[in-house]
Design goal:
globular; seven-stranded mixed beta sheet; mainly beta; 119 residues; 11 strands
Length: 119
């Protein structure tokens, strides 16, 4: 059974920092691209950052230079360091694991963790 468990969300003031973690189990972690997505109220889910198996990283323009994604294959964990947080970063943040194998896409989601940026 695949599980992605996010942690580290919470309430933070504008300009503050948070570090999200996502612990994966039930998959061969190193075979998967790992990503963070977010969904604000009334909006579609959007990509925040993704790190490939080879640690190639892509960021959404809105978070470049503020957020940093990393992975620890030994601990089956992906992290999202969020600095200089803004009110518009408020959303539920979801962890995603994805791979393509034999022409099939395998994708899993965590339950999400709430991040609220407010004074």
């Amino acid at each position: 059974q695949v599980q992605l468990v996010e942690s580290g969300g919470g309430l933070v003031q504008p300009g503050g920092s948070l570090r999200l973690s996502c612990a994966a189990s039930g998959i061969t972690f190193s075979n998967y691209a790992m990503g963070w997505y977010r969904q604000a109220p009334g909006k579609q889910r959007e990509l925040v950052a993704v790190i490939s198996r080879e640690s190639i990283i892509t960021y959404a323009d809105s978070v470049k230079d503020r957020f940093s994604i990393s992975r620890d294959n030994a601990k089956n964990t992906v992290f999202l360091q969020m600095n200089s947080l803004k009110s518009e970063d408020t959303a539920v943040y979801f962890c995603n694991a994805a791979r393509v194998w034999a022409g099939l896409r395998f994708e899993y989601w965590g339950q999400g963790t709430q991040v609220t940026v407010s004074s």
